[in-house]
Each structure stands twice: as structure tokens, then as C-alpha cells.
Specification:
Distance between the termini of chain B: 10 Å
Structural class of chain A: alpha+beta
Oligomer: heterodimer
Number of strands of chain A: 12
CATH superfamily of the largest domain in chain A: Reverse transcriptase/Diguanylate cyclase domain
Largest sheet of chain A: 5 strands, mixed
Order of helices and strands of chain A: EHEEHHEHEEHHEHEHHHHHEHEEHEH
Number of strands of chain B: 8
Strand order of the largest sheet of chain A: 5-6-1-7-8
Number of helices of chain A: 15
Largest interface: A-B, 24 and 20 residues
CATH topology of the largest domain in chain A: Alpha-Beta Plaits
Distance between the termini of chain A: 45 Å
Strand order of the largest sheet of chain B: 1-8-7-6-5
Number of helices of chain B: 0
Strand content of chain B: over 45%
CATH architecture of the largest domain in chain A: 2-Layer Sandwich
Helix content of chain B: under 10%
Structural class of chain B: mainly beta
Radius of gyration of chain A: 24 Å
CATH class of the largest domain in chain A: Alpha Beta
Shape of chain B: globular
Shape of chain A: globular
Order of helices and strands of chain B: EEEEEEEE
Number of domains of chain A: 3
């Protein structure tokens, strides 16, 4: 029996939530921006898109395209809560829900058809409930696998429902440009174009041995994709592979160059990473520091592997600072990031003596206070002047639960 | 648009009905009673161990964000946004 996979993609998600929140924004060109000083348009409404505004544009560029653009500072907590409730709604139809990002998910409804009739009916029910409860629209694709379901949902926006039947796959893909497939980005498209491959039909007929020679095992995978073959399962959050790293990064409001400023931002990041690691009972041996310099193009990064796994913020901070001192930083810094990897779950060794035990007790006390009153209620004195505390960006890896469920502000 | 209030506690009347969402009816702010004509959006989040219910409401003149702290059992107004002309 063919699988029945749904891909649900919320339409202009953040902007649509803002338009529901403030009715006067409905039908208007709306751009959602972050709260920091370096604002780019995170996303925009369809009305703004029709006037040439695109995601990622600087505010001044967007205003040039669309002078009447209304800018709204996004509220990430509103978006994550709405997303969690939509995912809960999807679980009314199948337990096999894979959250792909904050506004996209796959559902495997193959085993739910006896209960609900057809995948198409489930799609209509979901669309109606989402519209009724939140006033939001979404596009749904139905197909025998995830690759084609995602392709289908992209075909009708906004508020679409597209079904790709198995017998239509070959004819549909014959002339489809390769960059329409999820997983084939601009760089790979350029490379394939140079080989004379522009459509999925051409890619599916290209000699496999040439593709394998050039791309290794990915070559075979590319050809399978071009034929509409994708056996990857829908993986619910609880069955996802354990996380391999815990990290945070922050684009600073202003470029920083003084040692003191860099230290306080590193300490803040170390506390964010350490706190999340401690909350989920993980510790790690490898600390990775990432920097982006003021010219925007220079990215520096290096990692250090410690003798034993750590999750105390001070240990992370010290390791990050040691790495920082080895990097050739010759410009002010625009972005800082700390990542803890080489993770072990529930492997923390409790210290028994001396300063390490005092540090552990202090961290535990801080965590208890912050668990009760909210993140960063009790913090290191040197980071008190940092204007932005906590995470302000929803990562593409965000999930509604587990380690990847980062509390955003 | 401008945010002019942050977390000011308010006196408020709301309907708590079994099986239905909480419905704010009116609230008092600066000695003026604002009647809630429309609740445009609802969502929730958590600060520490306190769960907060957020209601974006309109009195016909402006948008307000009312917050109900389930732990402390109090209402506050978080933001006021004059409606966009």
C-alpha cells in the first residue's frame, strides 16, 4: 500500500499571526522584524511580497520597494506557542508528526485512513480547524512520500491543497526544474546546470556512474529524488536521534572590540548553553567557539576538547575564552556563538570537594531560582548590563519539545 | 505604533466558564473602564514556573495585551498599541 504523507506549510506564518493579532494589519503589507538594532525583514505578508519585499531584506531596502510597508516587531513566544498548538492539533489525526521547522510539518496518515476516510479529508479538517481557531491559512501537499508532499505544498500558495497521485509522478517531474526539489539548493543547481541538467527528467536519465563519481553516494540519492523516490520515514520528535550538540549564538546590537565586552557576552552565552544542557541532563567534552567579524565575510571558529564532560557555565566560559585567545581577531566582532558537543546524557560527575563543589552548589542554586522566576532572573553580575538576555531567534532546528525547544523572547 | 505599558496591574472582569476559554469583559486603566469588544488573539507562555495567558483585545480604539498570571492569579496590561490608521 502506498504511504499517504501530508506536508503542511503555514503561509507567511509570522506575518499572518501578526495580522490576526492586530486586525488593522489585515490586507496590509506587513514586514516582521526582530527587536535588535540590526533589523532585517524576517518575513512579510503576501501583500508585501506582491510589492517586491522579500525575506532577509534590510529594512531600508524593503521600504524602497514598498514605502507603505508596516513594520511590526515580531513576538517569538506568540509564534512558538501557536506552533505548539497546531502540532497538537495534527496529533489528533496521527502520532506520526515530524516537525520540520516552526511553520512546517510532515504527517504520515497511512494508518489513520480507516478512522478519517482519506488524506484529503484530514487535510481539509486540519485547514478548517487552523483557520477557525487561529485565523491562519496553510498550504497542504499530499503524496506518497515526504519529498513529493513538500513539492506539492509549494505548488499552491497561499491556502492550497495539492495532491500528487503516484501515477502522475513521472509526468510531473519530467519538466520540473531541479531547484524545485527540497534539498537541491542554488549551489548544487548551478553545478548540475553546468552538466546540462536543468530538469528532474534530465537528472533521472543522467548516467549514474558520472553522478556517483562526482557526488559519491549523494549522486545516487539525487537521481532517486529526480525520480520522485524517497523512502525516508516521518520521524516524530520523541523518536528523533538524540541531539549531538547544544549551542547558542547572538548577533550583537553593535560590533564589539573591547576585551571586557567580549568577555561578558561570552559569559552570557556560556550561561545560556550551560543552563539548557543542565536542564536536559547533558554534558559535553567539546566546546566550539564561533565568531563573525565586522566585515560580515570573516568567520572564525575553533574547538577544544576537554578531559571530561562539562555543563557548568563557568567551565564553558573558561574554555571559550581560551579558544578566543588563539583566534586571529583583527576586527570588531559582529556575532558570537558557543556550542557544546561530544555530548553524554546523564553523565555528570558530582564534585565532592573544595571549590568545584562550591561552584556546583552555586550553579544549582541559580538554576533553582531561575526555574522558579524565569531565565536570567539571577545572573552573573558582569552580564547585568547586557541589554539582550536570552535567545531572540527561533532556530531552524526548533522543536515543540525536548532539548531543541529553546525558550525564545 | 508604540508600546506604552509594561506589566501594569489592572482591575478586570472576566468570564470563567467550564470548558470554554477565559473571556475578558472589561478592565480599568488610569481610572477609565475599557470594554473589551474583541479578543483578537490568545496565546500562552511561561516565565519560570508561572504560566501566563495572553489576550490581545480591542476596545474599539486601541489594542491591549492583557496577561493573566495563573500562578499569582492576577491580571496585568503588558502593551498598548494604538490601532493602525
Amino acid at each position: 500500500m502506498n504511504r499517504q504523507i501530508l506536508h503542511l506549510d503555514m503561509n507567511a506564518y509570522f506575518a499572518s499571526v501578526e495580522q490576526q493579532n492586530d486586525p488593522t494589519l489585515r490586507g496590509q503589507p506587513v514586514g516582521v522584524i526582530g527587536s535588535s538594532g540590526r533589523t532585517v525583514v524576517t518575513t512579510c505578508s503576501y501583500e508585501a511580497r506582491a510589492r517586491g519585499v522579500k525575506t532577509g531584506m534590510n529594512v531600508w531596502q524593503a521600504k524602497q520597494c514598498c514605502p507603505e510597508l508596516i513594520l511590526v516587531v515580531g513576538d517569538n513566544r506568540r509564534y512558538t506557542d501557536t506552533s505548539k498548538r497546531i502540532v497538537a492539533m495534527m496529533r489528533d489525526y496521527t502520532p506520526l508528526v515530524e516537525v520540520f521547522s516552526i511553520d512546517e510539518a510532515f504527517l504520515d496518515v497511512t494508518s489513520s485512513l480507516a478512522l478519517f476516510g482519506s488524506a484529503e479529508r484530514i487535510a481539509y479538517l486540519l485547514k478548517a480547524r487552523i483557520r477557525q481557531q487561529f485565523g491562519l491559512t496553510c498550504s497542504v501537499g499530499i503524496a506518497p512520500n515526504k519529498l513529493l508532499a513538500k513539492l506539492a505544498s509549494d505548488m499552491q500558495k497561499p491556502d492550497g491543497l495539492t495532491i500528487i497521485h503516484p501515477e502522475r509522478v513521472a509526468s510531473l517531474l519530467e519538466t520540473l526544474p531541479i531547484d524545485e526539489l527540497c534539498g537541491i539548493g542554488p549551489r548544487l543547481t548551478r553545478q548540475l546546470n553546468r552538466l546540462g541538467i536543468h530538469s528532474c527528467g534530465q537528472l533521472s536519465r543522467y548516467p549514474l556512474k558520472f553522478l556517483q563519481k562526482r557526488y559519491g553516494i549523494v549522486g545516487a540519492k539525487l537521481q532517486q529524488m529526480a525520480r520522485g523516490i524517497d523512502a525516508s520515514p516521518v520521524v516524530p520528535v520523541k523518536e528523533e536521534a538524540p541531539v549531538k550538540s547544544v549551542g547558542h549564538s547572538m548577533t550583537l546590537r553593535e560590533d564589539v572590540s573591547s576585551r571586557r565586552d567580549i568577555e561578558r557576552f561570552l559569559l552570557q552565552l556560556a550561561e545560556m548553553v550551560g543552563r539548557r544542557a543542565r536542564r536536559y541532563g547533558v554534558s559535553g567534552r567539546t566546546v566550539h567557539l564561533q565568531l563573525r567579524l565586522a566585515d560580515f565575510d570573516t568567520n572564525l571558529g575553533r574547538q577544544k576538547t576537554l578531559p571530561c564532560p562539562v555543563n557548568q557555565s563557568e567551565d564553558l566560559y573558561r574554555a571559550a575564552l581560551e579558544i578566543f585567545d588563539t583566534l586571529p581577531v583583527d576586527q570588531p566582532i559582529r556575532l558570537l556563538g558557543i556550542c557544546l558537543s561530544n555530548l553524554q546524557h546523564q553523565a555528570e560527575q558530582l564534585p565532592l570537594f573544595g571549590p568545584a563543589q562550591r561552584q556546583w552548589r552555586m550553579t544549582t542554586a541559580m538554576d533553582l531560582v531561575n526555574n522558579r522566576f524565569g531565565d536570567a532572573t539571577l545572573n552573573f553580575a558582569s552580564v547585568l548590563n547586557n541589554r539582550e538576555k536570552g535567545s531572540h531567534v527561533i532556530s531552524p532546528a526548533w522543536r515543540p519539545e525536548g532539548v531543541r525547544c529553546v525558550d525564545v523572547r | 505604533m508604540s508600546m506604552v505599558l509594561r506589566g501594569k496591574r489592572v482591575r478586570l472582569a472576566a468570564i470563567f466558564e467550564p470548558g470554554r476559554p477565559i473571556k475578558p469583559v472589561w478592565f480599568e486603566l488610569n481610572r477609565r473602564q475599557h470594554r473589551v469588544l474583541q479578543t483578537t488573539y490568545q496565546w500562552q507562555d511561561r516565565v519560570g514556573d508561572a504560566e501566563l495567558l495572553h489576550f490581545t483585545v480591542s476596545d474599539g480604539e486601541a489594542l491591549f495585551e492583557l496577561i493573566y498570571n495563573l500562578k499569582e492569579q492576577h491580571w496585568s496590561v503588558h502593551a498598548q498599541r494604538p490601532e493602525t490608521p
